[in-house]
């Protein structure tokens, strides 16, 4: 839909062409495969293009406006924003990319405000996948959102809401049943922390020390209580 932030060959505001085949796949092909399509987009034009094509979830979305926010709500779409990738790791960007990083970071406040005002369904993600140092620090994403989102809502987006998006993958989801919630019949994943993460998110940054108990699919993997 639009160039990636890390692509040195093109600007964030430049749209890529859409075509009937890709739009048809988003709207009908993915449904036929029992799954959905997610788009990595920033701009108003790119997001509108994604919405018109039938995309169900938007990664980033930093530069959306009120019209796009309302369209996302009307279409039952999800938003997966990130903060830390623009702040803490900006020094890792190649010379061609700092300007893009500043542009999309500047849109974070308006995006979070619009998401709250319009009621966009949101999830939690970091977009950190290839940098080893960044991967080790990605739990700092929790506290990085506190300027706009309450701790309880952040945790809900990281658990129950993210679980709902996973279910959009249908039979392709590797998780049987409900995930992200503690209810009867749900996939038995559970973390217990040393301390109240709602009161102090920083405990999650040192996750080796903070997480005292891990249950994955009903199997206890760590018990240090």
TrEMBL record:
Any one Gene Ontology molecular-function term assigned to this protein's record: hydrolase activity, acting on carbon-nitrogen (but not peptide) bonds
InterPro entries registered for this protein in UniProt: Amidohydro-rel, Metal-dep_hydrolase_composite, Metal_Hydrolase, Metallo-dep_Hydrolase
All residue ranges annotated as the Amidohydrolase-related domain in the record: 33-220
Pfam families given in the database record: Amidohydro_1
Domain of life, source organism: Bacteria
Protein's name in the database: Amidohydrolase-related domain-containing protein
Species: Meridianimarinicoccus aquatilis
């Amino acid at each position: 839909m639009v160039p990636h932030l890390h692509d040195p060959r093109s600007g964030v505001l430049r749209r890529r062409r859409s075509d009937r085949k890709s739009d048809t796949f988003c709207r009908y092909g993915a449904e036929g495969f029992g799954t959905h399509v997610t788009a990595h987009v920033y701009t108003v034009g790119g997001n509108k293009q994604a919405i018109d094509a039938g995309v169900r979830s938007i990664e980033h979305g930093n530069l959306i406006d009120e019209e796009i926010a309302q369209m996302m709500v009307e279409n039952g779409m999800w938003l997966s924003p990130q903060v830390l990738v623009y702040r803490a790791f900006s020094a890792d960007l190649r010379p061609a990319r700092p300007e893009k990083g500043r542009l999309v970071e500047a849109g974070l406040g308006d995006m979070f405000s619009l998401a709250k005002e319009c009621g966009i369904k949101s999830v939690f993600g970091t977009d950190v996948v290839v940098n080893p140092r960044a991967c080790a620090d990605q739990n700092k994403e929790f506290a990085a959102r506190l300027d706009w989102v309450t701790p309880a809502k952040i945790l809900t987006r990281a658990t129950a809401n993210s679980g709902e998006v996973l279910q959009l993958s249908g039979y392709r989801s590797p998780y049987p049943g409900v995930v992200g919630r503690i209810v009867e019949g749900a996939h038995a994943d559970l973390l217990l922390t040393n301390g109240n993460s709602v009161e102090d998110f920083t405990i999650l940054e040192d996750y080796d020390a903070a997480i005292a108990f891990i249950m994955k699919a009903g199997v206890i993997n760590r018990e240090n209580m």
